[in-house]
Design a protein that fits this description.
Low-confidence stretches: 283-290
Distance between the termini: 23 Å
Helix content: over 70%
Mean pLDDT: 83
Order of helices and strands: HHHHHHHHHHHHH
Largest sheet: none
Number of domains: 1
């Protein structure tokens, strides 16, 4: 893969991740069924990629690896469920922007967990995200759907940040292997909650869920991993700052979710924070397993 094709693959991956909320809203099923189906389809897609497109040998898993993968799977399940609840409650735009706060959580938690000094520019990142959230929130009435959905979305971003940090600690496991194992855990966790309603899911909803699993998870993650073999992680982070833009634009075109000027301003600050976070990221983190949006 050349740098040019890798950059194209990154943008396609960012677009696919950005469509996550859109497909989640199109599917009329419950968040538990959507997450179960997404994980099941992702396992199939990642297994095919690992078999035919990946040249990275898999590592023999030790007991500590299994514990970390189990924890990652639980965090991923919580992240996805809370995100799709936010989509159902408040819409794609608020859910996507709320989730996009994860770089701020990562800065704070990374400093606490790995005992790394929080720099002044990282504090500015947290401030940008905080101001962006205030602008995105139409009001602060906990009874309103927008505020309720934003809380779920921010919780999703927190879980995603914890997932990323746990993946950092599991650096010796190849990314595709880690992603496949995590999705197996997600599917097993959600199966009891999803099983009673699986027979009632419409064929069209299975299409949206299948697209979520194959394209927005398996293929998007594979493109992200493949591009990191050529490009720097900083470049990838900046490109993936476009994810909320793609998601909000498609939601506006499909569902008529017209963002207000205040929401656009808040979203711009949050996206700026993502770009700043990517530019501040350390080069040695480039090969860490990627978490999944």
């Amino acid at each position: 893969m050349t740098p040019r094709s890798a950059l194209g693959a990154l943008h396609i991956g960012a677009l696919m991740f950005g469509l996550t909320g859109v497909f989640g809203k199109l599917a009329a099923a419950s968040p538990a069924i959507i997450v179960f189906g997404r994980a099941a389809f992702a396992v199939i897609a990642l297994a095919v990629f690992a078999r035919f497109a990946s040249n990275t040998p898999w590592q023999k898993l030790q007991a500590s690896d299994l514990r970390r993968l189990l924890l990652s799977g639980l965090l991923l399940a919580g992240h996805w469920v809370s995100f799709f609840i936010a989509v159902k409650v408040a819409g794609v735009a608020i859910a996507t922007l709320g989730f996009a706060t994860f770089p701020a959580f990562t800065v704070i938690l990374e400093g606490l967990i790995f005992r790394e000094r929080i720099r002044a520019n990282e504090i500015i990142l947290v401030v940008l995200v905080s101001v962006g959230l205030v602008l995105v929130t139409p009001d602060f009435d906990l009874a309103s759907q927008a505020t309720n959905g934003l809380i779920w979305a921010v919780g999703s971003g927190l879980l995603f940040s914890l997932l990323s940090l746990n993946n950092r600690a599991s650096g010796r496991i190849p990314p595709v292997q880690a992603a496949l194992c995590q999705n197996v855990v997600v599917a097993l966790c959600l199966l009891p909650a999803a099983a009673p309603g699986l027979t009632e899911v419409r064929a069209l909803d299975w299409l949206w869920i299948g697209l979520l699993g194959v394209f927005c998870t398996g293929l998007a993650h594979s493109l992200f991993v493949a591009s990191l073999a050529v490009l720097k992680a900083r470049t990838a982070a900046v490109v993936f700052a476009m994810e909320p833009v793609y998601g909000i634009t498609v939601a506006w075109l499909l569902f008529g979710e017209n963002p207000t000027l205040r929401m656009l301003m808040g979203g711009a600050l949050i996206i700026l924070a993502i770009v700043v976070s990517g530019l501040m990221s350390r080069p040695e983190k480039a090969k860490q397993p990627a978490a999944q949006a």
